[in-house]
Write the C-alpha cells for this entry.
Amino acid sequence: MPSLDGLAGILGDMTTFSIRQIGDPVLRERSDDVTDIDGALASSVEVMVKTMYDAPGGGLAAPQVGITKRYFVFHDDDSETALVAINPEIVEERGECEWTEGCLSIPDIGFTIVRPEFVTLRALDIDGNEFFMEADDYMGRMFQHELDHLDGVLAIDRVDKEQRKHIMRLLHERELVTPAPANPFG
Ligand SMILES: [Zn+2]
C-alpha cells in the first residue's frame, strides 16, 4: 500500500486546515462517497496529514476539516507512516471493550465508550486499490471513531447518559469562558 510517509516533511510550511469544533454543523452531516480519486483529493489528503500531525492526533476525518467526503487519514502504528482510508467500512467486528477516546473536534475531554474490540477495515488507498486492515486496541478504536465522523456521529453520542450530562455541562461552561491563548505567559 503506498504510504504517505514524508509528506509532512515535504509540505514544510504548507498551511494546515483548521479543525472544526463541536457546534459546527458540518460535523453532523453524513459525508458522501468519494467518486474520483484524483489530484484534488490527493492535495487535500496531504494537507490533512500535516493538520493531523500538527494537532497532534492519530487520525483525522475529512468532515473535521469541512470536507463532507468519506475518507480519513491516520497514522499507522505498524508501518509508522500516514495512510488514507477512502470510502472505508468495517466489514467484520467482534468482542467488546471499553476505551477512553479523545477527539480533536472536542478537545481536552475523554469519552469512555464501549465498542467492538476487533475490527476489520476495508477501504481504498490513494491509488484506488482496495485494502483490508485488522485492528484492535488504539487502531481499532480510531477506525471506529473516524468512521463515526463520516456519519455525523460524535464521541459524545456514544457515552452513557451520566457521562453525557457531565460533558455537556463542561462544554457549556467552557463556552462562557474565554479560551486560553496559544502563547500563554510563563
Ligand atoms: Zn473525533
